[in-house]
Design goal:
There is one protein chain. This protein has about 450 residues and is mostly helical. The chain has one domain (about 1-440). About 65% of the residues lie in helices and about 0% in strands. It has helices at about 1-15, 30-40, 45, 80-90, 95-125, 130, 135-140, 145-160, 165-185, 190-200, 215-240, 245-255, 265-270, 275-310, 315-330, 335-345, 350-375, 385-410, 420, 440; strands at about 20, 30, 65, 70-75. The strands form two sheets. A two-stranded antiparallel ribbon has the order 1-2. Strands 3-4 form a two-stranded antiparallel ribbon. A hairpin with a 5-residue loop joins strand 3 and strand 4 (about 70-75). The radius of gyration is 23 Å and the shape is globular.
């Protein structure tokens, strides 16, 4: 119920930008752009009503492509295929950007409610961070994030609450959900790696290792294969029916440059260099390499914790990997806060970290659009000209510093899902061999 109320507030926040009048294309009037920035009620959903053939109800990917200058056409959108399907469904019976926003909200709200339910089952009261979270109000209907967040949380729910099945079965089912997440917005797929390591090490205390085995290699490979296979199967129909349009969405993202639209530390830290082709080509290499390095470090530190406790902390490692991605990737859109929010419930990091991040995110999320408004209207927008630019910089750099700190804080924190078994320390400094059971030794 609380999640539903917060989602309703999130919709009302974005609906402030719609109407009251509409032009021939269904765009809200008057002064749509000025209002969306000045009132900080901008949403990609409303904005993309025009420019991607969504208003023309063109089925995505099948007939389109991308021009040499990077313009998408023929119904292609810059998101993975399942998000494209949701966009098409949301526009199917709409003839204005307001109708598109309302229909999209109705389609996505059940995913947000399911996320709240699963978090409540997993973490109890900590789920209020989602049910009452300010990022849900700010970003629930900013873009198409709620289904992908539901995939990430749903995978955790399957692993830790489907008690009747063995770990390998639960993890493979979770990997399928993570593969679906890839087809929504890519990022849940990265969690398949720590989940595979969790299965490889036999879960809590190695208790679910196969008989006589130190590692469950087949289980880990099954997890990786299920995630990859699901992602492939979700994409395959589009790749076969419209290979040019399907590939255009990936091509568009690969061409994205570090600029104001990406809102990452790479832009704010190197603004004077972003017009250089050399800088952009360097970022195309440096940013993904650093992201991958952060993934490797998170998994390595998680493995070291396995040696101390007997359990690989796959949820904590997933959270740390996400921090590395958000900090180091060349794109850091405001709504990405929704990706991180469930991990504040799933992992018992100190509340100070949570409060600081939510404050920094709000400063950035509101400040960036107010700053856009000052740019658009030609008003002074420098750091010494008022609080807008100051709040934006506090948000951008405060959030960056907090993500760096949270990377380690998550890795050192306890899971809020199954604390007693998930973090029970071992007396030995190394991970002990599994103790043979009666079934394993053949004794009766």
């Amino acid at each position: 119920m609380l999640s539903a109320l917060t989602l309703a507030a999130g919709y009302a926040n974005k609906a402030r930008c719609t109407g009251p009048d509409f032009d021939a294309s269904g765009r809200s009037q008057p002064d749509y752009q000025e209002r969306s920035y000045g009132d900080a009620c901008y949403s990609d959903i409303q904005n993309l009503w025009l420019g991607r053939d969504i208003d023309q109800h063109v089925f995505p990917y099948v007939h389109g492509g991308i021009t040499p200058d990077g313009t998408l056409f023929g119904g292609v959108v810059e998101y993975p295929v399942l998000s494209g399907l949701l966009m098409w469904l949301g526009a199917l019976f709409a003839d204005t950007d307001a109708g598109f926003l309302a229909a999209s909200a109705l389609i996505m709200a059940p995913f947000g409610i399911a996320t709240g339910y699963w978090l409540g089952s997993l973490t109890g009261g900590r789920a209020l961070l989602w049910a009452l979270g300010p990022p849900v109000v700010l970003y629930a209907f900013h873009n198409w994030e709620l289904p992908v967040v539901a995939c990430a949380v749903g995978a955790v729910f399957l692993v830790h609450r489907w008690r009747s099945a063995p770990l390998r079965t639960r993890a493979v089912a979770a990997a399928v959900v993570l593969g679906l997440g890839f087809a929504f917005k890519l990022y849940p797929a990265i969690f398949a790696l720590p989940l595979a390591l969790y299965v490889l090490s036999g879960g809590p205390g190695g208790a679910e290792l196969p008989a006589g085995k130190r590692y469950d290699v087949r289980g880990a490979l099954a997890v990786a294969g299920a995630a990859a296979g699901t992602a492939v199967l979700a994409n395959l129909p589009f790749a076969l029916l419209g290979p040019q349009g399907w590939w255009a969405s990936f091509d568009f993202q690969s061409r994205r440059q570090v600029d104001i639209s990406t809102n990452s530390v790479w832009y704010w830290g190197f603004r004077d260099w972003t017009d250089s082709d050399g800088f952009q080509s360097t970022m195309d290499v440096v940013s993904p390499l650093l992201v991958l390095l952060s993934f490797a470090v998170a998994c390595l530190l998680g493995w070291r914790r396995l040696q101390r406790t007997g359990t690989f902390p796959w949820i904590q490692v997933s959270a740390a990997m996400l921090c590395g991605f958000l900090l180091l990737h060349k794109v850091h859109s405001p709504q990405f806060a929704l990706w991180l929010l469930p991990f504040f419930a799933l992992v018992s990091v100190p509340w100070g970290w949570v409060a600081a991040y939510l404050l920094a995110d709000a400063a950035m999320g509101i400040g960036i659009f107010r700053w856009f408004y000052l740019n658009m209207t030609g008003e002074a927008n420098g750091i010494h000209d008022g609080f807008t630019a100051q709040a934006l910089m506090i948000g951008v750099w405060g959030r960056a510093a907090l993500l760096a700190g949270l990377f380690l804080a998550f890795l050192n924190a306890r899971s809020a899902v199954d604390p007693p078994s998930d973090d029970s320390p071992s007396d030995d400094s190394r991970r002990p061999d599994p103790v043979p059971t009666e079934r394993q030794t053949g004794l009766r």
